[in-house]
């Protein structure tokens, strides 16, 4: 097992990420309106596989996953950005989910929860933006119970060498504009965090979009 590249989050890069998404928070849903049509069935597929009664969603954003939450589970949702969380709170009220979800400001790189708190954890299009993704995934491994699941819907670097190099070239510009890295190797990062990968499903675009199901090793 390979541990995270740092033991604590870097405050400079974390604050930069927070500021980027705070700047975008008021228009974020509008910016992703067309893309969300594509993501809708993927969110449905992911949440249909989430086990357990107490689930952590990291990077809850504006609450786009909320319409897909399974009946009968409770959700703890965190986000790094106050502006995003404000819109998530509005969506909670609109959907009548107040009794089922508890929202907090938080950083997946340094979670304020004791070990083995949650039955499972979920993130959608989050680990493209976490400054130290392996550190964040290690934190999910820590707070999810042994044998519990970590489910991710992510875009990542293309396995096609030519496309991958183009994504590497474009990445600095995309990060400055939107905050997300387009060339993360998230499947490998999941392995580095000590999670056991059970499934990687190619959802489209030649391996760029993937549904990853991993499990916390039993002690």
List the SSEs and their pairings.
Elements (H helix, E strand, L loop, with lengths): L10 H14 L3 H4 L1 H15 L6 E5 L15 E6 L2 H14 L5 E5 L12 E7 L8 H11 E12 L5 H18 L7 H7 L3 E9 L4 E7 L4
Parallel strand pairs: 1-2, 1-4, 2-3, 4-5
Antiparallel strand pairs: 5-7, 6-7
Write down the overall mean pLDDT: 93
Strand composition percent: 15-25%
CATH class division: Alpha Beta
CATH architecture: 3-Layer(aba) Sandwich
Q: According to CATH, what is the topology?
A: Rossmann fold
Please estimate the helix content: 25-40%
Amino- and carboxy-terminal Cα gap: 14 Å
For the report, how would you describe the main beta sheet?
A: 7 strands, mixed
Q: What's the overall geometry?
A: globular
Helix and strand string, N-terminal first? HHHEEHEEHEHHEE
Rounded to an integer in angstroms, the radius of gyration calculated over CA atoms is 16 Å
pLDDT < 50 runs, ≥5 residues:
1-6
Number of domains: 1
Strand order of the largest sheet: 3-2-1-4-5-7-6
- Tell me the number of strands: 7
Any idea what the CATH superfamily is called? Vaccinia Virus protein VP39
Q: Structural class, judged by helices and strands?
A: alpha/beta
Instruction: Enumerate how many helices there are, as a single number.
Output: 7
């Amino acid at each position: 097992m390979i541990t995270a590249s740092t033991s604590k989050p870097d405050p400079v890069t974390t604050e930069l990420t927070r500021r980027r998404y705070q700047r975008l928070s008021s228009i974020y849903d509008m910016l992703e309106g067309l893309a969300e049509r594509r993501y809708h069935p993927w969110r449905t597929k992911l949440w249909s596989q989430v086990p357990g009664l107490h689930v952590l969603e990291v990077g809850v954003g504006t609450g786009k996953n909320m319409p897909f939450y399974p009946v009968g589970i409770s959700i703890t949702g965190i986000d790094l950005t106050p502006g995003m969380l404000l819109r998530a709170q509005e969506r909670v009220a609109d959907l009548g989910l107040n009794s089922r979800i508890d929202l907090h400001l938080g950083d997946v790189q340094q979670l304020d929860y004791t070990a083995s708190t949650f039955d499972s954890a979920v993130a959608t299009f989050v680990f493209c933006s976490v400054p130290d993704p392996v550190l964040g995934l290690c934190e999910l491994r820590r707070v999810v119970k042994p044998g519990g699941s970590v489910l991710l819907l992510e875009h990542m670097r293309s396995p096609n060498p030519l496309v991958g190099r183009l994504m590497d070239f474009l990445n600095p510009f995309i990060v400055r504009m939107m905050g997300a890295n387009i060339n993360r190797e998230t499947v490998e990062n999941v392995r580095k965090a000590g999670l056991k990968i059970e499934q990687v499903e190619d959802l489209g675009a030649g391996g760029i979009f993937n549904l990853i199901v991993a499990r916390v090793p039993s002690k």
